[in-house]
Amino acid sequence: MSIGQAKANTDNMVQMAKSIGLDYQMETMVLTNTFDAHRLAMFAKNKGLMNEMTDRLLRAYYTESKHIGDHETLIGLAAEVGLDRDQVAKMLASDEMSDAVRADEQEAANLGINSIPFFLINKKYAVTGAQSEEVFIQTIEQVLEQDGPYEG
């Protein structure tokens, strides 16, 4: 992908976010290794707070330009969603949850996922990139037509 294409994709994502009330700050985003943020999300999953933690991490990264590779930042974000600061600090200082994150990475690779955002429905329908509401509606309609309603 060229720099121009990447910029156009980023601009499109910012506009789509804005259309639903999100204020993405791509110009001030702190690019970092997010492995520890993923470990924190897995840790939060074990405590029943994965959705809250993931939402907080994404807001911190995309709209607040926080450094989500920094342990002190991660500890503070975790405390905001109700996780114990000391437990989070201990986890981040170890390699705890690394295997779980690596397993997720391997599963993604096995499924051919190599970019974000990526949405996989029924392990066979994929929506890649920042897409419009219409694309998601069409995909769900296709899933219903081909697979019928979910019977979980």
Characterise this structure.
By secondary structure, the protein is mainly alpha-helical. The protein contains 7 helices and 2 strands. A two-stranded antiparallel sheet has the order 1-2. Strand 1 and strand 2 form a beta hairpin. The mean pLDDT is 92.
Structural class: mainly alpha
How many distinct beta strands?
2
Distance between the termini: 39 Å
Across the major sheet, the strand order is 1-2
* CA-based gyration radius: 17 Å
Poorly predicted runs: none
Indicate the proportion of strand residues.
5-15%
CATH homologous superfamily assignment of the largest domain: Glutaredoxin
Q: According to CATH, what is the topology of the largest domain?
A: Glutaredoxin
Key traits:
59% helix; 2 domains; Glutaredoxin; mainly alpha; two-stranded antiparallel sheet; globular; 152 residues
Would you kindly provide a brief summary of this structure?
It contains 7 helices and 2 strands, in the order H-H-H-H-H-H-E-E-H. The protein has 152 residues and is mainly alpha-helical.
Q: What's the arrangement of secondary structure elements?
A:
Elements: H1 3-19, H2 35-46, H3 50-62, H4 71-80, H5 85-93, H6 98-110, E1 118-121, E2 125-128, H7 133-147
Helix pairs in contact: 2-3, 3-4, 4-5
